[in-house]
Amino acid sequence: MGHECIDASKEFKFGDDVKSGVTEIVLVRHGETTWNAAGRIQGQMESDLNEIGQKQAVAIAERLGKEEKPIAVYSSDLKRAKDTALMIAESCFCSKVTEVPDLKERHVGSLQGLYWTEGAEKEPEAYSAFFSSQNDLEIPGGGESFDQLCERSMNALEQIAKKHKGERVIVVTHGGVLRAIYLMITKASSAGKLLNASVNVVHYSEEKWIIDSWSDVSHLSSVGFLQRGFDGDAKA
Asked: Is 167 a catalytic residue?
């Protein structure tokens, strides 16, 4: 398919006039988990989709199943993302989900497993490091810096984009990773709220990224979602 360079200000529909060199990546945040609902910090620890999260995964799978078929479905190797991705893959008639460890959530050190409301008191250094504007600051307790998260996330995404030139793929990942991707592409000061089971579409062409749409949860109108989402820019 041939098309001209994308004008991000115009409505874009993949499959209408997409240039053969453009990769469309549909980024999805996993469905709601038990720890999301409880306000508990997951990081790279595991937490299952709760009942609402499972319904969200069904809803997003149904939506994406009605859109143009992706050539592949990728996922973080954490269970909450994989479970969401498996439902999407089935709905989109993709035979498998390819796990990409570099798309997993940020390791947030000694904050992992705590509740957001107790983080500042129990692990003040780690809590401060998480919200620090010093991007190369690693979170105490084995955590990553924001720079480290950005580097691995963007490298993984770029590899996928280059492999699927001119194709559409779905990538299921996490709030922290989505925040990093948004800030790296836009150079904005804030990414706002990253909502569970949201659809976020980016395009890659000629070494450049463009955000086509962000934080779309229109498919969740009958299911519901946590309004607070993931907000790595504001202290709880």
From this structure: no
Helices (H), the chain: 34-38, 51-66, 79-91, 116-122, 124-130, 146-163, 175-186
d(CA 82, CA 30): 8
Q: Which of 3, 4, 24, 30 is catalytic?
A: 30
Asked if the model's pLDDT at residue 9 lies above 70, the reply is no
| 179 appears as a binding residue in the annotation | no
- The tens digit of pLDDT for each residue in 112-148 reads 999 999 999 999 999 999 999 999 999 999 999 999 9
Pairing verdict, β 168-173 and 72-75: parallel
Q: Which of 62, 67, 99, 105 is catalytic?
A: 105
pTM value?
0.88
The H or E element containing residue 215 is: strand 208-216
Q: Give catalytic status of residue 30 as yes or no.
A: yes
DSSP state of 104: S
168 is in an annotated binding site: no
Residue 233 amino acid letter = D
AA identity, residue 171: V
Distance CA 134, CA 86 (A): 36
